[in-house]
């Protein structure tokens, strides 16, 4: 009798759930999407385009522009000040901003095109965060409840050529990027970097794992080792450093695909690019500040392809920190020499990496 009563209760509950599903249809709020260029970074003189999953109300769209100041949890510091304060399609946003929109036949907004001043906010090498504010609404009143941030890196429109030699502090660097969306991940590469006088850029890096109880996102070389397990992965990346008329050094890399065998979660990052500006840190060493972008992300759970989930692209802040000689973590990959180091997991250097003349004098 007790078993029968339980079964009857389950059937009754199932009936209620089925009825609820038949009478309630969730209508989500509209989603925005950054239309990222094929090369990852945006030409400084061209607009940044946001599209929407459905038409949005004109008065519901608003955005701000920030320096790339999000913390490790993806939040703005309390003392942060926007470069461009709240801007709408119906407001005067100042001399550094032009905003245009595309509408459908009903007057709803299907895309927005934001052009930022190439001599100020969008100067080549600059990285900004574009924040789409909460309140984005469709015609039925379905409204977003939180901000969405997009990391945007700008580059010069010129091709790859330098009239003068490029100065760079070759050596070991720790590259670090914290991915917040679509899947949280910390990417740390302990890398050898060579920049040729003509601007060609090459780096070979191995995954860094934290030790000594350090946080996952640490960039302290004393708290990192090259992952020596089957879950370690590497990256071999080529690119170019361009000298601007003002003497700035702007890096953009060619796209690469990265595979992270972090069992039981296996991650593929496709068409990964590094873009940024090379500056000097407080001690006078070269320091790379910029972004890491990717066109798509695949997450697989276990070894079954049916458990594979595809996500769209993204872009996050990235830094490259110079490591002083003698402080380098042992057995990291090199551009010239052992290109895998301690990495025994995923390490497949391209046959043509680096260019044939790079290691002639090494």
Note down, in words, how this protein is organized:
By secondary structure, the protein is mainly beta. It folds into 2 domains: about 30-155, Immunoglobulin-like (Sandwich), CATH 2.60.40.1220; about 170-325, Lipocalin, CATH 2.40.128. It is built from 1 helix and 21 strands. The protein has one helix at about 1-25, and strands at about 30-35, 40-45, 50-55, 60-65, 85-90, 95-105, 110-115, 125-130, 150-155, 170-180, 185-195, 200-210, 225, 235-245, 250-255, 255-260, 265-280, 285-295, 295-300, 310, 315-325. The strands form 3 sheets. An 8-stranded antiparallel β-barrel has the order 10-11-12-14-15-17-18-21. A 5-stranded mixed beta sheet has the order 2-9-8-4-5, with no helix packed on it. Strands 1-3-7-6 form a 4-stranded antiparallel beta sheet, with no helix packed on it. Strand 19 and strand 20 (about 310) form a beta hairpin. The relative contact order is 0.14.
């Amino acid at each position: 009798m007790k078993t029968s009563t339980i079964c009857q209760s389950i059937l009754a509950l199932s009936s209620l759930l089925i009825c609820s599903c038949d009478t309630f249809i969730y209508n989500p709020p509209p989603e925005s999407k950054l239309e990222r260029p094929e090369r990852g970074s945006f030409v400084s003189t061209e607009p940044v385009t946001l599209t929407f999953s459905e038409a949005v109300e004109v008065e519901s769209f608003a955005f701000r522009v920030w320096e790339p100041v999000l913390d490790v949890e993806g939040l703005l510091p309390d003392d942060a000040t926007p470069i461009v304060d709240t801007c709408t399609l119906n407001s005067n946003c100042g001399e550094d901003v032009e905003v245009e929109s595309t509408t459908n036949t009903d007057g709803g907004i299907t895309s927005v095109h934001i052009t930022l001043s190439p001599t100020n906010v969008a100067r080549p090498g600059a990285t900004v965060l574009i924040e789409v504010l909460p309140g984005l609404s469709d015609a039925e009143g379905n409204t977003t409840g939180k901000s969405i941030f997009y990391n945007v890196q700008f580059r010069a429109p010129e091709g790859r050529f330098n009239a003068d030699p490029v100065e760079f502090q070759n050596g070991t660097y720790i590259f670090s990027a914290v991915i917040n969306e679509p899947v949280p991940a910390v990417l740390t590469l302990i890398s050898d970097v060579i920049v040729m006088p003509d601007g060609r850029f090459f780096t070979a890096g191995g995954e860094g794992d934290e030790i000594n109880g350090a946080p996952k996102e640490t960039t302290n070389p004393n708290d990192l080792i090259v992952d020596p397990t089957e879950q370690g992965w590497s990256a071999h990346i080529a690119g170019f450093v361009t000298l601007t008329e003002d003497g700035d050094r702007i890096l953009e890399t060619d796209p690469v695909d990265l595979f992270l065998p972090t069992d039981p979660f296996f991650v593929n990052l496709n068409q990964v690019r590094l873009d940024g500006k090379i500056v000097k840190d407080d001690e006078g060493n070269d320091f790379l500040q910029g972004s890491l972008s990717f066109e798509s992300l695949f997450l697989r759970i276990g070894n079954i392809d049916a458990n594979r989930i595809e996500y769209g692209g993204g872009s996050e802040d990235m830094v490259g920190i110079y490591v002083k000689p003698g402080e380098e973590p042992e057995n990291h990959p090199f551009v010239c020499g052992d290109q895998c180091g301690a990495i025994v997991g995923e390490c497949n250097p391209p046959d043509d990496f680096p260019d044939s003349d790079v290691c002639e004098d090494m």
